[in-house]
Amino acid sequence: MWAAEKKGFKAWLQLEKSLSDHSVEAYGRDIEKLTQFFSSEQKETTLENIQLKDLQSFLKWIGALGMTASSQSRIISGIRSFFKYCMQERLIKQDPTLLMETPKLRRTLPDFLSVEEINRIIETIDLSKPEGERNRAILETMYSSGLRVSELVNLRISSLYPDLGFIKVIGKGDKERLVPIGNTALKFIAIYQTQIRVHGSVKKGFEDILFLNRRGAKLTRQMIFILLKNLVRESGIQKTVSPHTFRHSFATHLVEGGADLRAVQEMLGHESITTTEIYTHLDRAFLRETLQKYHPAFQV
To answer: In the predicted model, is pLDDT for residue 31 greater than 80?
Structure first.
């Protein structure tokens, strides 16, 4: 069903929207869900004939499959993009998704670490081991710049500007941004480069990748997850911590310190300010905790 339109949509996402292969595949699965719905209803329909009531029935169908509100919301986003493409290509005259409502999402506050907890995790690193200095540089960089784990493992030596205190990061959709990096992180990166990395063999094609494994190749995302999981266990911190927790902590500490939300958005590489606004909720929670802790009226 709609094979030509789906093929064109895929090309549009790749070429005009510059989305990653992973994102393009996800959008493709969203449209497949819609075609599965029409097939299950034994309803062969053209794109032009699809109406809002059909999409509302589709929402009930995916809801009955047991999908969470966030999963439903993601699928709706993909379908909206598909019909936007169809409108641009004049494959349809009206967009049936315009009045389609997205399930209400309960915004959960992401876990974050205190400065003391981050220091405890970093201090757990065994610097006597060859990978110790590398691991210290990795964690300092994650906390200093709020990088996604994919951005961290792909960080290049040529993207470091230590004299300016910035690094160039390739984020989602291959979008570049300049992110400030602290002196502490730069210090440990320099130690790793001059004392550890320089003595190892580097596999062809990875000469410009900053953080390497023992075989001289790029680290994987899973390696970073395992590294952090082991350090958290050894530190005795009773929290579920992932690389994204360091990113959340970076943003939370900035907002708690009074940073402008637009600046935080730019540093995190969020396309929409709405995504960054969750940290204002974290900030309010922090303020309430502070009030309860220090204000006489809240103390028993």
So the answer is: yes
Q: At 177, is the secondary structure helix, strand, or coil?
A: strand
Residues in the chain: 300
DSSP character string of 77-120: HHHHHHHHHHHHTTS-SS-TTTTPPPPPP-PPPPP---HHHHHH
Q: CA–CA distance from 149 to each of 9, 33, 86, 212 (Å)?
A: 29, 29, 34, 14
* pLDDT higher at 273 or 76: 76
**How confident is the model over 92-143, as pLDDT tens digits?**
998 998 888 776 655 555 678 899 999 999 999 999 987 999 999 999 999 9
SS3 178: strand
Residue type, 160: L
Q: Which of 134, 247, 248, 253 is catalytic?
A: 247
The H or E element containing residue 179 is strand 176-180
The catalytic residue among 27, 85, 192, 279 is: 279
> Residue 220 in contact with residue 243, Cβ under 8 Å?
no
pTM: 0.60
Give yes or no for a contact between 105 and 73, defined as CB atoms under 8 angstroms apart.
yes
Active site residue 247: yes
Q: Out of 148, 197, 248, 253, pick the active-site residue.
A: 148
Marked catalytic residue, from 172, 187, 221, 281: 172
Q: Are 188 and 136 in contact (CB under 8 A)?
A: yes
Query: What does the pLDDT look like over 193-231, one tens digit per residue?
Result: 999 999 999 999 999 999 999 999 999 999 999 999 999
Average pLDDT, the chain: 85
Q: Does 253 participate in catalysis according to the annotation?
A: no
Q: Which one from 10, 187, 244, 281 is the annotated catalytic residue?
A: 244
What are the helix (H) ranges across 41-197? 52-64, 69-88, 115-123, 132-145, 149-153, 183-191
Rg (CA), the chain: 23
